[in-house]
Amino acid sequence: MEPPSSADAPTSRLAAALPWLRHARRILVFTGAGISTESGIPDFRGPNGVWKTTDPRRYTIESYISDRSVRVERWRARLESRFSDALPNAAHLAVTRLQRAGLVTMVVTQNIDGLHQRAGAVNVVELHGTSSEAMCLDCGRRMPIEVALDRVREGDDDPHCERCGGLLKTATISFGQPLVAADMDRSIDEARRCDVCLTIGSTLSVWPAATVPVEAVRHGGRLVIVNDGATDLDGMASLLLAGRAGTVMTELAAALLGGGDSR
Ligand code: NAD
Ligand code: ZN
């Protein structure tokens, strides 16, 4: 495998990826918070990430369960967040374009924002759950997030399950919470089959999610990383494409499929 190329000369680097992507039978796209920053949703570890102002320890499942003030804070933040208004950006649309052209078989995302689906992608695995639903941590009952948020709006700052009294939480996976085994299994299966794993906007530092690109490489797939900044798996990559996801992915889709139309 060739060593990763240097961070300059973006156009020629992009050209290096084209034969692999064009001739791939299966491309697995793996995305993180960085693909959605251009839609106005902050990431965690980027230069303007959430960790710059918030203590990650307040994002663990243990603190959610044991500390009422954490739950009140999370619900208030969810109410104020503009998640529901966010729109897919050029990078999400380019991924959908590659999928409609038959190149991308599966999109595995660590994001909880639903933007791949809103951009028209199918076969999307949401490894860390979804912000569009709430669930009871005791009986597992799920409901649209707006049902829970309406209760917060009406003054219940720490809503509980109406059926069993358990704690309600956004249906996302917090630190310390196990992933859904079936979702991880599907992702790993595809990672082992793909020719190219194209990661976009992730530090590839959150485990076990990062097992997906690692398994792709272990089973002979190439790793192509699109990210504005270093990742933990740069050393495993066949190619590093540094830059903004919207720009790099639009160029990549245009070079592979022609045209500048992001759909
Ligand atoms: P991360 O926050 O660890 O890293 C994001 C990476 O993307 C950083 O290296 C950053 O420099 C880069 N980046 C930021 N904007 C970019 C852009 N426009 N183009 C290219 N690169 C860009 O993200 P992660 O690895 O996905 O881990 C964060 C965890 O937090 C995930 O597991 C996810 O579940 C969760 N999260 C999700 C959202 C969301 O749903 N949009 C937002 C924040 C956090
Ligand atoms: Zn319940």
List the helices and strands and how they pair.
Blueprint: H1 10-22, E1 27-31, H2 61-66, H3 68-80, H4 90-100, E2 104-109, H5 115-118, E3 124-126, E4 129-136, E5 142-144, H6 145-153, E6 168-172, H7 181-193, E7 196-200, H8 211-218, E8 222-227, E9 239-242, H9 245-257
Parallel strand pairs: 1-2, 1-7, 2-3, 7-8, 8-9
Antiparallel strand pairs: 4-5, 4-6
Helix pairs in contact: 1-9, 4-9, 7-8
The structure holds nicotinamide-adenine-dinucleotide (NAD) and zinc ion.
- Sheet with most strands: 6 strands, parallel
* Helix/strand order, N-terminal first: HEHHHEHEEEHEHEHEEH
Output mean pLDDT: 91
Helix amount: 25-40%
Compute the number of structural domains. Answer: 2
What is the CATH superfamily of the largest domain? Answer: TPP-binding domain
Helical stretch count?
Answer: 9
Could you please describe the fold and organization of this structure?
The protein is an alpha/beta fold and 263 residues long. It has 2 domains: 1-41 and 87-128 and 180-263, 3-Layer(aba) Sandwich (Rossmann fold), CATH 3.40.50.1220; 47-81 and 131-172, SIR2/SIRT2 'Small Domain'. 34% of the residues lie in helices and 17% in strands. It has helices at residues 10-22, 61-66, 68-80, 90-100, 115-118, 145-153, 181-193, 211-218, 245-257; strands at residues 27-31, 104-109, 124-126, 129-136, 142-144, 168-172, 196-200, 222-227, 239-242. Strands 3-2-1-7-8-9 form a 6-stranded parallel sheet, sandwiched between helices. A 3-stranded antiparallel sheet has the order 5-4-6. Helix 1 crosses helix 9 (245-257), helix 4 (90-100) packs parallel to helix 9 and helix 7 (181-193) packs parallel to helix 8. 40% of the residues are buried. Bound molecules: nicotinamide-adenine-dinucleotide (NAD) and zinc ion. Residues 32-34, 36-38, 41, 43-46, 49, 110-113, 128, 201-203, 205-206, 227-229, 244-245 line the site of nicotinamide-adenine-dinucleotide.
